[in-house]
Amino acid sequence: MTMAESHAPVAPGEPAPDFTLAALDGKDSISLSAYRGRSSVFLALMRGLWCPFCRRAIAQMASTDTKLKALGVESVGVVATTPENARLYFKFRPTRLRLGADPELLTHRAFRLPKPPATPELMEAVGALRVNPLGELPEPLPVKDAAVAAGKFDGYTENDTDHADMEQQFGLLKGQFLIDREGIVRWANVECAKEGLPGIGKFPSEEEILAAAHALTR
């Protein structure tokens, strides 16, 4: 998988596209411009809650959040589902993270995240993969089996909204961006951009995220 299928994602040195989304804590909206001049931002754009790798990544973000705050970096996540669906999930799995809901994928498009078409060739290649994207499984498994195994960590049961989200989002790649106080992207990571298909489901490690944050604050 390459980035040739679409325009290249937003890269370091480019202004980060602003957005305003419904905040999942129900208090107000969440926007990137609210952090301008106040703090840097670690922004993670996820698929919907149907994606078990995304749910695990949100849990990982929560564990890294305090360490990023100590460096003057706030964490913001965007989940590609309706506010109601996401709020139901986080009602039973509370998080301190600032999260916004983007069911229309407006933020993902603004940051130009790839969504390669599900061609027969791509699906055959994915079917031949064995992955362990978060290092939590005993061994690499076929992608579908790895997703089922990852889903068991939080015991999530998909609903009709999740099924509709999955149909709309299938193939969409995740992206993470470190944005400075002036709103400029200084570091970016897009799923599969470096490793090709073996990068499916992966999320940057805490060490990688903190190293990028340290570089930003030097």
Nutshell version of this structure?
The protein is α+β, with helices and mostly antiparallel strands.
Spell out the blueprint of helices and strands.
Blueprint: E1 20-23, E2 29-31, E3 40-45, H1 52-69, E4 73-79, H2 83-92, E5 98-101, H3 106-110, H4 120-127, E6 130-131, E7 141-142, H5 143-151, H6 160-169, E8 175-179, E9 185-190, H7 206-217
Parallel strand pairs: 3-4, 4-5
Antiparallel strand pairs: 1-2, 1-5, 3-8, 6-7, 8-9
Helix pairs in contact: 1-5, 1-7
Architecture overview:
With 218 residues, the protein is α+β, with helices and mostly antiparallel strands. Helices cover 33% and strands 18% of the residues. It has a single domain, classed as Glutaredoxin, CATH 3.40.30.10. The strands form 2 sheets. A 7-stranded mixed β-sheet has the order 2-1-5-4-3-8-9, covered by helices on one side. A two-stranded antiparallel ribbon has the order 6-7. Helix 1 crosses helix 5 and helix 1 (52-69) runs parallel beside helix 7 (206-217). The longest helix has 18 residues, at 52-69. The N and C termini lie far apart (34 Å). Mean pLDDT is 93; it is low at 1-5.
